[in-house]
Structure formats: structure tokens, C-alpha cells
Amino acid sequence: MKKTIILAVAFILSVATFAQKDEIKAAEAAMKENNFTQAISVLKGAENLLVTAKDKQKAQYYLVLGKAYFANGTTPANFQLASQSLNKVIEIEKNGSQSYTEEALLTINNLIQKIVEKASASYSEGVELSKDETNHALSVEKFNESAKGFEEVYNLSARDTAFLQNAAYVYYFAEEYQKSIDNYKKLLNIGYTGAGTVYSAKSVVNDQEVFFNSKKEMDDQVKLKLVVDPQIKAKEPQTIEMKKMIVKSYLAMKDNAKALETILEAKQSAPHDYGLLVDEANVYYAMGDNMKFKEKLEEAVQINPTDYVLHYNIGVMKSDLKDLDGAIESYNKAIALKPDYVDAYNNIGAAVLAKAEPIVEEMNNNLNNFAKYDELQAKQLDIYREALPYFEKAFEYKQDNLSVVQALMGIYEQLEMYEKSKEMRVIYNSLKN
Description:
Blueprint lengths: L1 H31 L3 H10 L9 H16 L8 H15 L7 H30 L5 H21 L4 H13 L3 H13 L6 E8 L5 E4 L2 H9 L3 E9 L3 H14 L3 H12 L6 H13 L3 H14 L4 H13 L3 H14 L4 H13 L2 H8 L5 H28 L4 H13 L3 H15 L1
Antiparallel strand pairs: 1-2, 1-3
């Protein structure tokens, strides 16, 4: 009696197995005709048979189901379901024969590539649009599309952490600052540093760069002639760079306290990092602490003395602190590094003119003392003559700078260079209109 029961159970299991194979064959036949909806329907109808199926049969079922959801990349709405099914194949076979794992990985890679191509294209469009300020809203929209695509890749395949880093980076340009912060913090919390080896090759279909999780994945696709020109590159740790991006987002959100907190935390592992010092200076500037701003800029310039913008900013800070000679010295350092630096020439001229302010005040106090007034006026005009070459140099490099033109117009008038003053007035009126 017992033998009969065992045989009956074996017979039932055998029928179920054959039935499942038939369903898979029917689904594969439908997929050959690009009828992916029918394939999914057939497979979902056989789902109850998985309870008694062996691991190999389960793996085959989920592979075909995943490919049906993927539909050769034509159904983005089903990519999440496709990824779930394909990852089940890998999970089922991780300790077994792995008969279907390679094909599952290949399909996942194709799925990811479709999303990455679209996300990369959106990013490129955003960059191009951002070159024209009138396209700002459109560029932000494109960056947002791109970031969502990269984030989707990570959600579909958590192994691909580099794409979450891409998402965090692009969300900043999409002005989704909190999303950028959240994604960077997620990466830091899981111990992601960005360091490691990057495996890439070019797709034979569209010549786009394709990235892989391992050398084996890359080599397998090279053998299948799906990609060419395989590359292996070392990638340096990105921890500090990620924290800098968090700082930028906090600054954009005007959360200076959080920005400073992140900088001080990052400086514990990189106390002399130039970028962090500049960021720290900018935070102090945003907080209105001009002395700290100047202090941090001067620390930064010791590390990178060839940064002309840094010298310029130190000059601005010194001007604000009424250290006019120190400001001029810093502006000249900026010009030595960038000879066509219009703003630096303009600011030197302005700093020189600022020296005339106490003289003008004294002139106003001596309106009835003609000898003293004439003496002071002579000093005033000497200062104008000293400032003039800097404004002229600024104008030489940029003729449409309204403040430079206005300064020249006034100085020429004071120095009785009336023809020059008239020329500047014509230019001034054309720019103003």
C-alpha cells in the first residue's frame, strides 16, 4: 500500500514538471513572436507549479519571466519586475549549478544599459541646455530625468552602487538638493568609497561605454562579441568628494550650520584638503564672518598659490576690511596669473579711487580756503590718474562692462579729457539701452 502511494505522488510531481516545461516552451514561443504580454500571462498561470519544482526549473522559469518583462527593452514600466525575476535566478543558483545565471546577468546588464543610455543622454542634454541661461528650467528638468534614471539602476541592481553616486551628483544640478544629500549619505552609510577597479568596454550596437561589475562579466561579453575594447582602470576613493557635494547642497539650501558640520567632519580625515578649506571659507562668508572667511582663504592660498580666483577673493575681502594696499596686492597677484582678468583690473581701479574719499571729505571742509582746496584737488586728480590705467586695461579686455565704462567716463571728465569722456558716454548710453 505504501509503495502505491509513493508511486502516485511521484506520478503527480512528474506531470507537474512536464506541465511547467510546456508553459515555459509556450512562453518562449510567444516571445519569439514579440508577444511578451502573452508570455507573461502563460508563465503567471503556471506559477503555482513552482512549489514542487526543482531549483533548476525555478531558475529557468524566472529567467524566461524576467526576459518577458524586459521585452527586449521596450517596456520600461516592467523593468522593476524584470529585475526582480532575474535576480531570483541568481539567488536560486548562487550555491548550485548556475545553469541560467550567466544569461540572467546578461539580461540584467542589457536592462541596465537601456536605462543608463537614456539617463546619460538626458544628462548631456541638460549640460548643453545649461550653457544658455534662458534654458535654465529645461536643463533642470533634463538633469532630474537623468538622476531618476541612475537612481532606478541602483534600485534595480543594488550591486551597481556607482550609479547611485551618479544619481546623487546629478540631483545637485537638478536642484533636488535634499535627494542629493540623502543619496550621498546612503552611500557613505553602507561604506561605499568609490574606490576599486572599473571594468568597461564599448557596445558593438551603439559604441556607448558599458560598465561591468566584474572582469568575468566583461570578458564574457567580449567573448560573445557584444562589446569590444575592454578597459580596466583603477578608481581612487571618492569619500571626501562626496562630502564636498553634500556641503554644496547644504549651501544651496542656505543651511550653513549643516554645511559647516559636514566640512569639519570631513577635515578630520583630510585636514589640509584645499577644496574643503575653500568650502569652509565660503560658509563663513555666507554666515557673515568676514574675518574667518579671510583667514580660511589665506590658508587655502598657501596650499594652492596659483588659483587666481582665490587671490581675487582675498583682495575683495581686504577691500571690505578697508585694507586697500593689501587688496591691490592680491588683485595684482590674480592678474599675474590671469593677465586678462577684467574684474581684478576694475577692482584695483576702485581701490585706488577709494583712497580719494578722505581727500574729498577734507575738500568739502575747506570750501572757503582756496589754497588748501586747490592743494587737495591736485592730490585728488593724481589719484584719478593712478586709477585710470587699470580701468583702461579692463576696458581693453571687455568693452561692454557697464561699471568700467561709467568709471572711465567720470575720470576722463575730472581730468578734462572731454573727447574721451564723450566716447565713453556714447558707449555707456548704448549699453544702458
